[in-house]
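Entry 14. Two folds queued back to back today. First construct below, sequence then structure tokens.
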Amino acid sequence: MAPVLTSPLVSTQWLADHLGADELVVLDASVHTAGTGLQTTWHAAQDAYEQHGHVPGARYADLITAFSEPGSHVPFTRPGAERFEAAAAELGVTNTSTVVVYDDSVGEWSARLWWIFRSFGFDSVAVLDGGFTKWRDEGRPVRVGALRTPAAPSDPGAGAFLAGEERALWADHDRVLRAVTGEEPASLVFAAPWATLGDDHPPIVPGSTPITADTLVNPDTNAYLRGSDLERAFAAVIGAGEIVTYCGVGSAACVDALALTVLGHDRVKVYDGSLADWWRHEQLAS
């Protein structure tokens, strides 16, 4: 029987206690970046996963290719249902699995994959609080090397994975523009750490409230803030009827979306494409 989740976040102790459990799938969703702003590049972190280690039994989930839509105008565009199903099934996920996702940074990539799973109706998914950084710093076991592809089940139907109907968890350019003009109000939350934009970049979306992802985690433990600390971080927007989070490409935005979910806000959307999409439209309009 798969472990039962009670929160969007699980502790390192919870994961240590459940490693090896039936139907638990652990995914490393790390992505590494270079450069800032418009010169940013993204690289799959599978080499680091294999050479520097990972949580025992974790499989590498490639957000750049497998869990993104190829040929899109902007990086990390969410995949369609069929592509998502194939990528999840390839990693051994079934509809009865419990999935725990982590990465080796402040959690933006694991939160991104968590949001994708939830957007397709899969709720038995959580993010490892503190990620691989906290796991490693606590001296917990680490494995080096690649894992073999999961063996195909003897019953083909047993390994199937079907996405649910896509939920309205994403915002597009038109939705954000309606928030800017006031036609359809929403609080716009800018989640990218300022350093990632560099010194020379186009303006962010007008009317945004900066609540950057790096301010939502404890710098000593890499774990999410809790309780009153988290409430204070979102004090400027928590009363809004709808909140749209965004960043550079839609990754750090998912940290804010997860934190708001922890606080119980149930009308949160992530602007897929984020500033990469916003700036593209601004350029097309000029």
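Second construct, same run, same settings:
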Amino acid sequence: MSISPPPPAPLIPLLRAAVLELAVLLGHVMLYPAGMRPEQSAGPGTRPGRGSDGAGAEFALLTAAVGRPPVVLLHGFVDNRSVFVPLRRSLARHGWHHLTSLNYSPLTCDLRTAAELLARHVEDLCARTGHPRVDIVGHSLGGLIARYYTQRLGGDTRVRTLITLGTPHEGTRVAPPMSAHPLVRQMRPGSSLIAELALPAPGCRTRFVSFWSDLDRIMVPTETARLHHPDLVATNVQVSGVGHLTLPVHPAVAATIRQELRAPTGADGTAVGVRVA
């Protein structure tokens, strides 16, 4: 799939992506403080606009069972849920009613700890909504956390589709001085965690969709954001013309995310492309 005419000379899309990244960064800085507050969840069995009385709870659980699965949004390194404000609004406008964002602590030093927190969040979400499974969209490190939960902690029983945006599935070599942080070391090629994710995962029931951009300067090399594993059903979506920070906020990427979330659970993994600039 292609959006827009063929790209111009290489320097022009590079400059466009850089300007767009800067604009996204400035906007995100303004939203960041609001995203630091924990998300307020409804009571057991409730939906937006419904009371928490017994009848409302029963109605919510019954209707949830036949609606779209809840979507969990998981941010990246030193970020918070504010990065997903545009995507969340896009999903809500197109009929997704159960949307939740999870903040994990910026002081987290082990990806596995964040994956365990995600596991508890998903169990709570399934109990509150009546859905047996959820979909997850993870940006950068968030995608790696969700993959670890799904692939190594039995999360495939709960996760129907996992979409990752600019996630270092094979590790990234960007900014070596940042390796002082334990989470960054875990995202390096050859780390014990990356090696653990390469282990066999027979019977994994989750469908994976990995968005990777040819202008993502955080993924080094850019192809590391593609997911290749013999036991996983994975679709790799190449995005042309945007950088790392722009992936979760770009309208064309959001449209493709909605398309992938509508796909049947057993969809075969294929390589597709999205041109946004």
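Quick look at the second one. Residues 5-9, 42-65 have pLDDT under 50 and may be disordered. The first strand starts at residue 71 and ends at 74.
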